[in-house]
Amino acid sequence: MSTPAQASLHDSLPVGKRELIVLLALLMSLNALAIDAMIPALDDMARELGAADGNSRQMVVAIYTVTMGIGCLVPGAYADRYGRRPILLFSLACYSLLNLAIVFLHDFNMLLVARALCGMLGAGLMVAPTAIVRDLYEGDAMARLMSVIAAVFITVPVIAPSIGQAVLHVAGWRWIFVGLAAVGAVAAAWLYMRLPETLTPENRQEINLKVIARNMHAALLNRQAIGYVMGSLLVMGGVFAYVNTAQQLYSEHFGVSEASFPILFGATAAMMAVANITNSRIVMRFGARRVSHTGVIVFIVVSAIQVWASHYRAGEIAWFLPLTAINLGLVGFLGANFGSIAMQPFAQIAGAASSVQTFFRMFGAAMLGMLIGLAYDGTAQPFAWSLLILSTLALLFVLYSEKGMLFRRLNVKPPKDRLVP
Predict the structure, then answer these.
(1) CB–CB of 136/10 below 8 Å?
(2) 255 — alpha (psi -120 to 50), left (phi > 0) or beta?
(3) Residue 124 has pLDDT above 80, yes or no
(4) Which of 335, 337, 330 is nearest to 289 (CA)?
(5) Distance CA 379, CA 386 (A)
(6) Which CATH number covers residue 256?
(7) Residue 266's domain spans which residues?
């Protein structure tokens, strides 16, 4: 549900709910597009720009996710002081200009530098939209809206590899970055014309290191939040590992053709969109906790089967593909719900909370994904074991936040934000 103040703010917006969902989904999907559209082009980019070895091609993706995670630590405090719009417009400008600059590069290391800057300076696209949703909604209603937004923006990783593949056939990999710059410019124009500021004057925070540190401390270390932040980090680490190694797994281990890879990758990623749509329909009835707790337990079971298949059905894509699709689908019941539960206590410091929580989720998940990806040994075993270990740890962190009690639907007043006067 929304508070009276949130309802009043929502009613004053010139954008309708559907347009708001699509716009926020577009903003959040730009980073996913910058990651997944690259995958079919990794071989061409590495070959043309002189990458050192086979696994180094993964760095085109990994460096972006890692620096994006680091960058998420900064924009929240500024979004709590100056508003959500300036942060988004700045991030969009950096996103478009840096992607355009990559078109003219001819060195692999310089490409990695540009990707790192793009990920870091574009991180506001991950932080500010979550703060906007928290400005307008809370509780299960926030989880529901985040699920709908996720269902829309997750279509990007579904179609992004196919888009990248199509561009490769027509014009070469550099035109992928031209397209990214153009989409960023369109998003900036849409935001500027249609979305007003959602940060209310009474919730503006001072730019003060003591205030920022105290707010971030509250947003991260609150017991209700930390288990869900860590749970998201661990589960998303498995997703990033899949993204980093997918091209090698499919082409080298399973022998999938170049033309079939985007279709299979998109089919597995599509399960996340289906799950988020389903979650948006059931979360108000059952509650974010019940749905996500069930999801993480099932995730562990499926991951255990994935480990078995990686050892005893090695190289058989008929086992790998459906199990991976189920795992990714289960993420759709975890991401939005975990994130909404973790944000619930922090209405007054939504920007700082979104910033520090997104930083830990994205940076931690990106580092895990990179390490798991670099452990690729020509089989699916490192990936399978990572899913089982990470999901089990995620459940333990959730149990910590819930004091050992799962499946509760809490309707208690959330703890107050610990703010510096």
Answers:
(1) yes
(2) left
(3) yes
(4) 337
(5) 13
(6) 1.20.1250.20
(7) 4-401
